[in-house]
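This week, work through this protein record:
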Amino acid sequence: MKLGFFVPNLLSWSGDELVIGGLERYAWALIDLINDLGWEVEVHQNGNSNWEREVNGVKVIGHGVAQFSPEAVVEEANSCCDKILYGSILQSPMYYKQNSIVISHGVWWDSNNFKQQRKEKMIKLCGNVLNEVDLVISCDYNFLNVMRSIWPGTTDKIRVIPNFVDLEEFKPSKNPTTDSKIRILYPRRLDNCRGTDIFIELANQLISTVDNIEILMAIDRNNPDKNKEIKSFLAQDQVKNFNLQFSEMPAIYQQADIVIIPSKYSEGTSFSCLEAMASGKAIIATDVGGLTNLIIDGYNGILVPPRLKTINKAVNLLINNQEMRQVLGQRARETAKAFTIDRWRQYWAEYLKAIYLK
């Protein structure tokens, strides 16, 4: 069986580079699963022209109409594919085929930047999606609960499969560092929704007040302008900057004493948070979106509002309490065992067969 898969940008718009991010990592894991089911998968995405590429044995088709209308890409994908899986909910009205699955990566309109009128439009859009498709797979319960409060008659179509982590790949270090430095890791995209601005302000305060602090920045290169904006911050002696491939991330988590996930909005069950948990790290996360499905405050991490003051207070608590860091990290590792990639694949395989083998 051949299954079309719409992913906004698995590759860059030119098709020349892999895009690195949570949604893209999710898509590749799903492609692996679909191939393991014995199905053929064909990816359709935004392009700056019409092009075709083959990556890891998978055909990826770029649609140049994306320059004029993102919705037109989906229309073209619909016309190319009898069966199609939609990798995300678009933020504008779109026709989704019946007998299909749409993926929700969480609530994305929970920002002060979204005016009330636009939020109402997003909620209506989600209601339309629920009416059109057979199933919406959500990565967190936040999306389900929001939809249940607004469209209770349609939420039987929502199934939650939290994001995953590979416990063999991400695990505690066998040889932890023994020097006096406290290493604080930011393993996130450079994006306002990910709280980059909060973290940099926090890091600058810590650098000026705590002698033994080292800041680890495991950041992306998807937006070069963002990297330039923080060039002076990254140049400080106490800051180590890593522009890494995903395969190098386990070793970076192992270096850290504290991991901070300071998301401000538009967050699901964060891959970064799950990876830090599996690595046995003390985590400070904000009470945003799907992070509340992962962290139980005071048990396997610290959960705080997305504000500099509250995060700063939590960081200083952990800096001065090594035993607390160890206990939280151990419990985080235990919790991560409920989010294995094998479990994720099992649930996804059941829903793929139920919808696309009708």
Remarks:
- The two ends are 12 Å apart (CA to CA).
- Residues 182-336 form a domain with the Rossmann fold fold (CATH 3.40.50.2000).
- The chain has two domains: 2-164+341-356, 182-336.
